[in-house]
């Protein structure tokens, strides 16, 4: 999920619509609401955020370092002021990147992926047994052969791979794939997506690589 922070509801609504067209969950906040949410939200909610986009919030209204205290997700400033002084000020505040507006939504997603790759020591994929799972939107490979997956199933597999070695709950998977504030989709839809994903992986691998335990969640195994 992508979080956008901007005082103008028209702006956050616009970004929500653009991300939705790309199949990416997002949520918009005004700076006061966001500050309260960052301090009070559960760890599993904060850690389901893929990146934070900080727009027009007034100087020092949002602290990138406070965000960094809760999660390692990229913090990117969206700047309408194309001056060197403003760009340097934003970097000094602790953001990972500064993007000058106007900008295409796909460029924002590409920059988020690039920052995340660097944070993962330039590794753009995870290998688990015969599976190579990419973290940049490409379909996974099994024994070198692509396995085409619907977007939701692919993103669930990516999320499980990025949490390799840890068990994640159904709520965490839902938040990462649909967003924390999506009230139009039932959380149980995760079970349906995972059931379909397991069937496809089992057919290719000969075993079920998704270990699940009731009330504890899911874990990807090799």
From TrEMBL:
<dbReference type="Pfam" id="PF00486">
    <property type="entry name" value="Trans_reg_C"/>
</dbReference>
<dbReference type="InterPro" id="IPR001789">
    <property type="entry name" value="Sig_transdc_resp-reg_receiver"/>
</dbReference>
<dbReference type="GO" id="GO:0005829">
    <property type="term" value="C:cytosol"/>
</dbReference>
<keyword id="KW-0805">Transcription regulation</keyword>
<dbReference type="InterPro" id="IPR011006">
    <property type="entry name" value="CheY-like_superfamily"/>
</dbReference>
<dbReference type="InterPro" id="IPR016032">
    <property type="entry name" value="Sig_transdc_resp-reg_C-effctor"/>
</dbReference>
<keyword id="KW-0804">Transcription</keyword>
<feature type="domain" description="OmpR/PhoB-type">
    <location>
        <begin position="123"/>
        <end position="222"/>
    </location>
</feature>
<dbReference type="InterPro" id="IPR036388">
    <property type="entry name" value="WH-like_DNA-bd_sf"/>
</dbReference>
<dbReference type="GO" id="GO:0032993">
    <property type="term" value="C:protein-DNA complex"/>
</dbReference>
<dbReference type="InterPro" id="IPR001867">
    <property type="entry name" value="OmpR/PhoB-type_DNA-bd"/>
</dbReference>
<dbReference type="GO" id="GO:0006355">
    <property type="term" value="P:regulation of DNA-templated transcription"/>
</dbReference>
<keyword id="KW-0597">Phosphoprotein</keyword>
<feature type="modified residue" description="4-aspartylphosphate">
    <location>
        <position position="56"/>
    </location>
</feature>
<keyword id="KW-0238">DNA-binding</keyword>
<dbReference type="InterPro" id="IPR039420">
    <property type="entry name" value="WalR-like"/>
</dbReference>
<dbReference type="GO" id="GO:0000976">
    <property type="term" value="F:transcription cis-regulatory region binding"/>
</dbReference>
<dbReference type="GO" id="GO:0000156">
    <property type="term" value="F:phosphorelay response regulator activity"/>
</dbReference>
<protein>
    <submittedName>
        <fullName>Response regulator transcription factor</fullName>
    </submittedName>
</protein>
<feature type="DNA-binding region" description="OmpR/PhoB-type">
    <location>
        <begin position="123"/>
        <end position="222"/>
    </location>
</feature>
<feature type="domain" description="Response regulatory">
    <location>
        <begin position="1"/>
        <end position="116"/>
    </location>
</feature>
């Amino acid at each position: 999920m992508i979080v956008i922070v901007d005082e103008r509801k028209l702006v956050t609504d616009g970004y929500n619509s653009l991300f939705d067209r790309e199949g990416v969950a997002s949520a918009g906040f005004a700076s006061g609401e966001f500050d309260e949410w960052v301090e009070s939200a559960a760890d599993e909610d904060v850690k389901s955020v893929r990146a934070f986009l900080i727009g027009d919030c007034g100087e020092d209204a949002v602290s990138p370092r406070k965000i960094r205290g809760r999660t390692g997700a990229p913090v990117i400033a969206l700047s309408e002021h194309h001056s060197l002084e403003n760009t340097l000020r934003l970097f000094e505040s602790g953001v990972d990147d500064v993007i000058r507006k106007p900008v295409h939504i796909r460029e924002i997603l590409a920059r988020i992926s690039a920052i995340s790759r660097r944070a993962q020591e330039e590794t753009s994929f995870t290998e688990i047994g015969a599976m190579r799972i990419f973290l940049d939107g490409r379909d996974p490979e099994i024994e070198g052969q692509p396995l085409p997956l619907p977007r939701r199933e692919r993103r669930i597999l990516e999320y499980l791979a990025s949490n390799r070695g840890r068990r994640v709950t159904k709520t965490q998977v839902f938040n990462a794939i649909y967003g924390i504030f999506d009230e139009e989709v039932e959380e149980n839809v995760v079970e349906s997506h995972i059931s379909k994903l397991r069937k496809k992986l089992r057919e290719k691998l000969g075993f079920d690589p998704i270990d699940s335990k009731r009330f504890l969640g899911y874990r990807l195994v090799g």
